[in-house]
Predict the 3D structure of the following.
Amino acid sequence: MNHFLTTEGVSREELTALLDDADTFVEVLGRPIPKVPALRGKTVATMFFEPSTRTKLSFEKAAKALSADTMSFSPGNSSLSKGESLKDTVLTIEAMGTDAMVVRHKATGAPWRVAEWVDQPVLNAGDGAHQHPTQALLDALTIRRRFGTLDGLRIGIVGDVRHSRVARSDVFAFSTLGAEVTMIAPRTLLPINGDGWPAAATENFDDVLSELDVVYLLRVQAERGGASVFPSLSEYTNRYGMTRERFSRLKPDTVVLHPGPMNRGVEIAAEVADDERSLILEQVANGVAVRMAVLFRLMGGEHDE
Amino acid sequence: MNDLVLSGGNIVTEDGVVEADVRIADGTIVEIGSALEASTLVECDGAWIGPGFVDLHTHLREPGQEWKEDIESGSAAAAAGGYSAVIAMPNTDPAIDAGHLARFVADRGRSVGLVDVVPAGAVSMARAGEQLAHIDELWDAGVRIFTDDGDAVADAALLRQAMDYLAGRGGVIAQHAVDPDLAAGGFMHEGAVSSRLGMYAIPSQAEDTVIARDIQLVELTGARYHVQHVSTAGAVAMVAAAKAAGLAVTAEVTPHHLAFDDTAVAATDPNYKMMPPLRSSDDRDALRQGLVDGTIDAVATDHAPHAAHEKDVPFEHAPNGIIGLEWAAAVVNTVTPLDPVAFYSRMSVTPAEIAQLPDHGRWVAVGNPAHLAVFDPDHRWTPGRTVSRSGNTPYLGMPLTGRVIATVYRGTVTARDGAPSMLTT
């Protein structure tokens, strides 16, 4: 593995190995001094060409917990606003002496371009509505730590699958790890074409609600998709929101995940978000561990290939 | 005497192929026979000798975007690809919307002297889609094809006026059939690949709805109408139906829409980004069938040069289009092999008829102008370089079958084995 760009096509063995490493790093992060010297002397550049708070902080925390130095780039008052190309920006930062690049960009495939241009590992921290593979790893880790495995679990992904890089990454990772995935949304938010998606689809949440082991709620992305993809927020909540009433109809051990940031009262009721069967903060904590696992895998140098 | 013999080839006429030599003098085919001699001999080794290719759709970028290509570098690429005439698209800067601009383009082509550069004119002023361009001036400057290529003429009323204005004298309206609203924000074909990439996409209906409407306007006006770069199975079916109904509707297809489908976009390489986008394999197969059966009249390159720095960006940020003049014939022969008569019909004879170029697209016969493309359909090779100013193409490094081994323009050899003569001398 030279880069970590997508979950599509990544084998069960590779995903499992990363999750196993991440379990170790969860333990490390629980120590009084939550830090190991694995990447001492190396530099990780976080390059977020699209605004981000949690993912950027999570990667930086992961790098520091491995004793790497970090450099960060954000587009605000940068050379990009002076007309510099993405390629020149990336090559300039590489020339300063970085050892890996974490890239988020609103254009699909941008991290692949970066991986062609630079001579070091590239980690995709989200490209357009395409992939966000470390999110899928942290989601899988969170589920695995709760249930022991994803094998045979029924996972419902609810909401704007069409415009969600989280959903694309999760669908492939979850199904590769043995889960049975159902996408739940109005047709305007389901994939335009489901060919090649290892997942079922339904418009009717209530039909499948009581069979799910994991309910994964996607954020309602008012800023994506432009014109009306559903009639109103209240109608969305009525059909697809995890209301207290729907929550009461879940199986007793079913858990709720959400990639954040949440719209309380829209896709998730405040009481559900704060319930002990909501694993949302565990997801955030596990995010640091899985990003440590990926950085270690790509930069550690202690593995074959 | 300063003459030229193409020796040992198979000449292509509308009746088929005959093994013969061709002697050329003073820009004209003067003799067809065996064991002909001349001051210059080009050995053809059994290759086809047919009329020089005519490209209905070339972007030469001059005036205004000479860092991408100019009429000299584009003419060299055309000569290398077997072309004796190219129709220069009017989406330059400024757009070719008045007579003096069209004359500039034609004059520049003449001064380069490698290929006839025939300007197409804009339908609307500045291609803005609001008011008619200086159509009479353009006509007087030799323009016969009118297009706002790069954009559709989206306004049905304006299109109807242009059709009415041109119908009486036989001018051609060529449509870039992409509905701007359905295509808005899209980067690729809407289908399984765009769905997995999460990329905003363009449904086939963006093309089909425009063509369906336009054919209605052809019925209304009796104008000649040409569909540029067809990309969908639906478009092929509508063109076939319009022809069956006796309407003056023609269509072109690009080599890339014949060669590739949207799965090529999966790796987000900007050299597979074009407009209209590469569509599904079913669409591609319908295009191939349409070219074979003649529903599609012509291969047109949509040669669209862009500088390296413009294409070396994320897919979504890249400009549309690739270059293709040098390899169009080889790509067609590789992915949609045609018999020699059909091959030269689609590459030369029919596009010359559509463009109303009486000196071009003439079958090989004594007395005809000596515009010839010598094409070896069995030659296997892999393109490794380009003479265009830009290199935005997926064909470099792609194994191809068939190669233009010589191009004759006005009786002079303008290219051998892909090298324009001005580069070899």
